[in-house]
Design brief:
Elements (H helix, E strand, L loop, with lengths): L2 H4 L4 E5 L6 H12 L2 E4 L6 H8 L6 H17 L4 E4 L5 H11 L4 E6 L2 H9 L11 H7 L9 E5 L4 H19 L1
Parallel strand pairs: 1-3, 1-4, 2-3, 4-5
């Protein structure tokens, strides 16, 4: 079974902290599935981007309108669609599920703090400063007990991570069939 055959109707959220590779891996996964990729960073209102650029963590009140836009993209886009969104707390994922109103899959890109920090330090021109990494790690609630979620390591090279994501999508799709 190809990646496309196993995920024709998939609506996927690639989640994780900043520096986990959501954009790179998510766009690679969308390409492998023959679908659309949307970077959730592009959905943030200017006020959120400005706040994070100043090194200030977003509050839940800041996030709710953004999460509604993420859910709208998932609901309105023909599948397969992959959206990169931190979705760090279960409450955020539940909000996306509720507002999207369709079956979703959440894939957490997971890795050690030192690898994430190194990636952030090497990234230029992004609004998210390295100083906010620890607050994101502290906020992260791993989706270990969520039936529509899987966790994928970011330690391997990007092509392997993308392949692992496609395998996770097929596995989650098979459990729903």
């Amino acid at each position: 079974m190809t990646a496309q055959e196993g995920a024709a109707g998939a609506r996927i959220v690639i989640m994780g902290v900043s520096g986990s590779g959501k954009s790179a891996a998510g766009s690679g996964l969308a390409e492998a599935l023959g679908g659309r990729f949307v970077d959730g960073d592009d959905l943030h209102p200017e006020a959120n981007v400005a706040k994070m650029s100043r090194g200030e963590a977003l509050t839940d009140a800041d996030r709710w309108p953004w999460l509604a836009l993420v859910a709208e993209v998932l609901r309105e886009s023909p599948p397969p669609v992959v959206v990169a969104c931190s979705a760090l707390k279960r409450a955020y994922r539940d909000r996306i599920r509720e507002e999207a109103g369709c079956e979703l899959q959440f894939l957490l890109l997971d890795g050690p703090a030192d690898l994430l920090a190194a990636r952030l330090a090497g990234r230029h021109g992004h609004f998210m400063p390295t100083s906010l990494l620890q607050s994101q790690l502290d906020t992260l609630e791993r989706p270990e007990d969520e039936a529509d979620a899987a966790i994928v390591s970011i330690a391997p090279p990007l092509d392997v991570v993308t392949r692992d994501l496609a395998s996770a999508v097929r596995g989650l799709s098979a459990t729903r069939a």
